[in-house]
Specification:
There is one protein chain. 64% of the residues lie in helices and 5% in strands. By secondary structure, the chain is mostly helical.
């Protein structure tokens, strides 16, 4: 993730310089605010990727001497089904309609979106705790769960 962190740090620096220059010469608040928000979003992604790099170290994609085989194995957990993306979409639609038709509908939409985000975040929160507390199988071999995805 080192390469991606550097890439987004460069994007954030570009937007910071652009926002400062645009704000200095144009004195127009909307464009300056938009460029500042772009800088903050790129900074957030760069910070996340940097923290992941510090926590997990180099990946095979970050090493020049890595082979294709080094990236093989389980990628990550991908949920088989979830009602929360559809709930978030429904909440976004109700929120957008609430902006047009009234505050009461926007508040309902905001509540549905908040519920969906909460559900997305905590749907599998206890997954790692359940996996670490489950007893090992008798063979003692490391088994891969059937829901994991392997790279080709």
């Amino acid at each position: 993730m080192r390469t991606e962190a550097r890439l987004f740090t460069g994007v954030a620096a570009f937007f910071a310089v652009t926002a400062a220059t645009y704000g200095w010469f144009s004195h127009e608040p909307a464009g300056t605010a938009a460029l500042t928000i772009a800088f903050l979003m790129a900074s957030l992604v760069a910070f996340f990727l940097h923290v992941q790099y510090r926590k997990r170290g180099l990946r095979a994609q970050d090493r020049g001497d890595a082979e294709v085989l080094d990236t093989a194995g389980p990628l990550d957990f991908f949920p088989p089904h979830s009602p929360w993306p559809i709930t978030a979409a429904l909440g976004a639609v109700v929120l957008a309609l609430g902006i047009v038709y009234g505050l009461w509908l926007a508040l309902i939409g905001f509540g549905v979106v908040a519920l969906a985000v909460f559900g997305l975040v905590f749907q599998y929160a206890d997954r790692d705790a359940q996996r670490s507390s489950s007893p090992e199988d008798d063979s003692g071999s490391d088994s891969v769960s059937s829901t994991s995805t392997r790279s080709p």
